[in-house]
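Sequence, please.
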């Protein structure tokens, strides 16, 4: 085999591993999360991309009124200047997870960019909040890892947590009505629902998020319990 052909074969194999290995892992992780939710008849409410100066306090208040805990996958870049909001999240009994620093797409960026962004978020979260960041749950932006960032979180034994039910609260086209979101969780026997608490300029965006949150919270009337991501992951060990 010529050196050129060897180089092409190696390039293709490494490229395939770069994309496929983390994808298999995250797909398996989603299936495992759903199985654990079903076993515990549990719903896990998660918020990504925050904290938002305006929306996060509204969400925290609504969760407090319902007496329900949630997990907030914050962006390191959004924590800066909003340290008090993060403190309020923790003081209300919720869990902080990491969602990276600058919302870097691990697949559509340079191979090392996701790893660097993940590490930058850990450092910033630790400096601003004192959290032992590699040990808190991590959700990569867009739910995507590449081979390097996957190995990085594996090496640090960081708990990676995806979602099973998208609320489509940020989508421009696709959407799901609050009642349909709740029905889908109910029919599945539970799940990890994805919402977002960053501040946005679109009119009525906050109401849309809160309406979906209220519909999910109403699942308690159907016998569901609410867990934080860390509790769900620990339940399966
Ligand atoms: Zn995100």
């Amino acid at each position: 085999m010529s050196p050129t052909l060897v180089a092409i074969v190696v390039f293709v194999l490494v490229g395939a591993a770069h994309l496929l290995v983390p994808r298999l892992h995250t797909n398996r992780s989603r299936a495992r999360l759903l199985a654990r939710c079903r076993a515990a008849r549990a719903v896990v409410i998660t918020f990504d991309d925050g904290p938002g100066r305006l929306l996060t306090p509204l969400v925290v208040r609504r969760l407090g009124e319902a007496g329900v805990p949630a997990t907030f996958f914050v962006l390191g870049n959004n924590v800066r200047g909003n340290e008090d909001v993060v403190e309020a999240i923790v003081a209300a009994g919720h869990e902080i997870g990491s969602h990276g620093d600058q919302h870097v797409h691990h697949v559509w960026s340079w191979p090392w960019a996701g790893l660097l962004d993940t590490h930058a978020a850990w450092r910033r979260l630790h400096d601003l909040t004192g959290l032992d960041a590699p040990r808190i749950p991590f959700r990569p932006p867009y739910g995507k890892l590449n081979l390097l960032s996957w190995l990085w979180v594996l090496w640090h034994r960081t708990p990676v947590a995806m979602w099973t039910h998208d609320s489509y609260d940020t989508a421009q086209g696709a959407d799901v009505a609050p009642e349909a979101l709740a029905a889908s969780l109910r029919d599945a026997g539970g799940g990890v629902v994805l919402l977002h608490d960053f501040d946005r300029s679109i009119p009525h965006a906050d109401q849309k998020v809160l309406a979906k949150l209220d519909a999910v919270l109403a699942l308690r009337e159907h016998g569901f319990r609410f867990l934080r991501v860390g509790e769900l992951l620990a339940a399966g060990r």
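The chain has a mean pLDDT of 92.
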